[in-house]
Amino acid sequence: LADDLYPLSPMQQGMLFHTLTAPGSGVYVTQLAWTFGGAVDMTAFRRTWEAVIQRQPSLRTSFVAEDADQPLQWVHPEATLPWEEHDWRGADEAEQQSRFETLVSEDRARGFDLRTPPLLRLTVIRTDERTWRILWTLHHLIVDGWSLGLLFQELFTTYEQVRSG
C-alpha cells in the first residue's frame, strides 16, 4: 500500500532517466562523510535516523517507472534503514583511509534499487575508542541541496530528544 503517489518534477524526471540509463555509474548518488569524536551514543544515533525516516515522507519514497504512463513517486508507510557497522580500530590511519576510499567507491557504484525505499543508507566505522566515521549515501531524487540543511537540523534535534528519552 502507498501512503501517497505523486508525479515527478521535471528535474526528478531527468535524474530518473539518467539513473536508469546508467546503472552502476553512481550518477545522482550523493555521499556525505563526517567524523564524530567523543561520547556518541550510536544506538541513539541509529534510532534518530529511524525516527526521521518515519517522519519524513521523502525518505520513504521509491520510484515507479516501468509499466507506468508516467513515472511516479511512491511514498511508503514505512521503510527500514540500511545500516552497516565496521570496526577498524586495529588498523593504522593509512590503512583506515585506504579502506574508507574503497568503501566509498564501492558503495557509490552499488547505487540503489529505486523501487525499494529508503534510497539512503548509513555506514558507521569505529576508528578508535572514541572516534566514529560516518558515510551517508543517498539518491539525489529524495533530498535536494535546499532540504539537506533542514534534514541535518532535524537529525540533531531528534538525537537530543532520543538521548534524553
Can you describe what's shown?
Helices cover 38% and strands 27% of the residues. With 165 residues, the chain is of the alpha+beta class. The strands form two sheets. It has a four-stranded mixed β-sheet, with helices on one face. Strands 1-4-3 form a three-stranded antiparallel β-sheet, with no helix packed on it. A hairpin with a 7-residue loop joins strand 3 and strand 4. Helix 2 (42-55) packs across helix 4. The chain is globular. It starts with a strand and ends with a helix. The model has no long low-confidence stretch (mean pLDDT 93).
Task: Set out the fold topology.
Elements: E1 4-7, H1 10-21, E2 29-37, H2 42-55, E3 61-64, E4 72-75, E5 83-87, H3 93-110, E6 120-128, E7 131-139, H4 145-163
Helix pairs in contact: 2-4
Helices, by number, come to 4
User: Considering DSSP H and I runs of 4 or more, what fraction of the residues is helical?
Assistant: 25-40%
* Low-confidence sequence ranges: none
Portion of residues in beta strands equals 25-35%
The averaged pLDDT comes out at: 93
Q: Which value, in Å, is the CA radius of gyration?
A: 17 Å
Judged by helices, strands and strand pairing, the structural class is alpha+beta
Largest sheet: 4 strands, mixed
Strands ordered across the widest β-sheet = 2-7-6-5
| Shape field | globular
Spatial gap, N to C terminus: 32 Å
Based on DSSP secondary structure assignment, what is the total number of beta strands? 7
Q: How do the SSEs run, as a string of H and E?
A: EHEHEEEHEEH
